[in-house]
Amino acid sequence: MLKPDISNDITGNLAPRIELRPYQRTALERWLFYIDKYDGRPKAPHLLFHMATGSGKTVLMAALILDLYRRGYRNFLFFVNSAQIIEKTKENFLNAASAKHLFAPTIRIDDKPVDIRAVDTFDAVSGDAINIHFTTIQGLHTRMQAPKENAVTIEDFRDYKVVMISDEAHHLNAETKKTLTEGEKAEKASWEGTVSEIFRQHPENMLLELTATVDLSHDAIRAKYADKILYDYSLRQIREDGYSKDIELRQADLPPAERMMQAMVLSQYRRKVAEAHGLHCKPVILIKSKTIKDSADNEAAFTAMVAGLTGEALDALRAASEGDETLSRAFTFIMDERAMSGADFARELQGDFAPEKVVNVNNPKDLENRQIELNALEDRDNEIRVIFAVDKLNEGWDALNLFDIVRLYDTRDGKANKVGKTTMAEAQLIGRGARYFPFMAPDQPDAAREKAQV
């Protein structure tokens, strides 16, 4: 089978920094074959891109939008489970000044300039622009049930053909499950029905789902997607292809304060190794707690630990870590090879991990206020080093320089033959940390990428 060509209308209109990876090109080639040559394609396709966290699903979304525009689609509905993902996606789609902006400074298709606009409704929008309505699935469901003036309504989807793009799409499967908890029934059971109703309103609507974590072990969900998975690219594949960090699991039977101190030392070790090689890398630590109260308590303990840190405490940690190869290597590099005393190292850590460089995202207002910072942790002027969280950042968070995830609880909620929610959430979170942090080694200027450990 000949591979379809990916049009310059796609590649030439992505941000100049974006070079499609081989697996992203494969996903697009499958899409182009499906749309142009697959005889069994329905007029209103419903497809799933099942792709690992960190594989660049948002880049794929941008490429699909560009291709669909040249096929005559102007209206796009982007919906997701979380308001924070909405804000991050708007930033990446609409803000040309953002370091993670997805599109070229000027988009040209068929030799005509094309704007990208966020819209509240598809009524009376530009026929020449890419019009995107961003919403949470909860908000979309509410508006469909209780229409308001100057807001999207069911008629929008009846009168205009729309491409529906569902990010973190596994949240749509509440009705497909044979067994629902009371909470799922109350909160989610109608979301899937709302999406299905919208999809059916126009014969040329499309529904494109993207997620890393569809529960294909569930019989009903596996049956639902049997003819819808266009591309499947797992975390194992992205790791084998060299587009993720290496993952090292460390176990320590230690009190929370000592676990956090170890993580801080290892994080600073990474920073100093990078600096020694002329590289800018500010490693970030995520400290995960079981409850919001625990998270607040752990943040207070961390702040107190840093404030009271002494050279003697670091010397004691070094002495206790003789059987820990990684931690011993960190101390050897910092205190022997770099000739830093315990007291000087303590003062450096107190500066680099000061309270203003620590964020707790469990408060929705704090999360909203610092969303832009959290989406730009790699920026040189971004000084955040530690993030305390429970579940807020499990999904939809892009952080290439997240290197350490510290879990300060021991229980899991899995049952026999079933992955528990805690385990699934942790798998998602590990995927966040595994996002590849690219850098060019000074002695290998032609290297496409270098590896780093999480």
TrEMBL record:
Gene3D superfamilies attached to this UniProt entry: P-loop containing nucleotide triphosphate hydrolases
Q: SMART domains in the record, alphabetically? A: DEXDc
Q: Name one GO molecular function term.
A: ATP binding
- What are the residue boundaries of the Helicase ATP-binding domain, all occurrences included? 16-250
One GO cellular-component annotation of the UniProt record comes to: cytosol
Which protein are we looking at? Type III restriction protein res subunit
Write down the species: Dinoroseobacter shibae (strain DSM 16493 / NCIMB 14021 / DFL 12)
Its lineage opens with:
Bacteria, Pseudomonadati, Pseudomonadota, Alphaproteobacteria, Rhodobacterales
